[in-house]
Fold:
Amino acid sequence: MTEDEIYRTSTQYRLWSFTPETLASLRKTTNAVAADGVRAAYRSLNARASQESSVEKRDGPPEEHVDCLTLEEEQKIISYYCGCTLDFVDLCEYPTNVKATAVQYLKRFYLTNSPMTYHPKEIMPTAVYLAMKSEDNFHYVKSFAEKLEKTTTEDILAPEFLLTQGLRFTFDVRHPFHGLEGGFMELLAFTNGNGQCGPWVEKSPGEIREEMMDVEPAPGASAKATNVKELVARIQKAHGKAKELLKTSALLTDAYFLYTPPQIWLSTLLLADEPLARFYIDTKLPAISEMKAKLHTVLRQCAEMLRSSPTAQPDKEEKKELKRINKKLAQCRNPQKMDLVGINKAQKQDLAQNGGVGLDENIAKKRKSEREISMKESESLFGPALPDKAS
Structure:
C-alpha cells in the first residue's frame, strides 16, 4: 500500500475530512439545532415555573426573546479558545503534539456541538487532558487540575465522555510535523549528494546538488547560496519558519479538515521559501505532469488559508468583539446543559441504581430534578438535616 492509500483508511480521512461546502453546511446545521435547543429549554423552564406557581418569577426570558449566537459569532469564540489552548499548553510546557491534538479535539467537537450548548471554557481543559492521554503524556488529573484556577478534578472529568462522543470515539490525529521533518532531512541529504529523487526523475545526486545551488534566492534574501554551508543555513531557516506555521496557523485554521498532512506541510514550506519548495517537488514528480499542476493549485489554496490565519493573541478591536460575544453567550446558553458536573453525577448515580445500564441524558436530568424536589419536600416536612456532631 502507498502512503496515500494508508491515509485513506484512517479515521481522520473517513470522518474528519470535508469539502469547504460540506464543512460550512455542517456548522450551519449545528448552529440552527443549538439555537432551537436553547429556545426549547427556556420554553420548558418557563412552562414548569408557571405550573408550580402563578406568581413565581419565570426562570428565563420568553423563548422568542432569546438572542442566540450567529454562526460567525460561534466561530469567533471557538477560535479564541483554540488560541487559549495554545497558550495554556505552552505555559505548562507540554509537547507540541499534545497542543496540536488538543486543538483538533476542540475543533472537531464543535463541528456538531455549539458553544451555546457547551461552553468552550468548560470543554477546553478536558480536551487538553484527553490529548495528553492520547499522546502518551499522561499526568494525574489532580496535578493537572492544579494548573488551572478554580478548577476541580470533577470539572475536568465530567465532560470527558461527552467529549469522546463528540469525537465519535476517534482519538487518532494525523499531524504534518513528521512529514516536515522527513522533507527537511531529504533536503539536507541533497546538499551532501546523498539524496534520492522520485522514480520519474533521472538525475544523479551530484546533478541534483548543482541544481539546488542554482535555486532562486529565498524571499528577502539578496543572493543565491554560494556554498554548501550557506545552502544548509537556508534550509534550516525555511524549516524553522515552516515549523512555526504548523504550530500556529495550521492549528487555528480549517487546514486539518480540508487538506492532508503532506499538503499542509508542503504549504508551510511554500510560504517559508517558495523556490526551495518548488525544487523539492521537482525532485519527486515529472517536469510536466497533470499531478504536479494539481498539487501546486492545492498548495497555493492551503498556503493562502494559512497566510490569513487568525492570531492566537487578539488585538484591541478583536478583544472588544469577543467581550461582546461572550456577554451575549451568557444570555443564550442552554440552561439544561450548564451544570456538567451535576449531570455527570446524576448519570453515575442512575447507572448504579440500574445495575450498570446507562440512561439517556434527558432521563438523567429528569431524575435529578425529581430527586431535588423530593429533598425539598422532605425538608419542609421534617426540617433540614441535623448537623454532624463535632468530634
About this structure: Residues 377-383 have pLDDT under 50 and may be disordered.
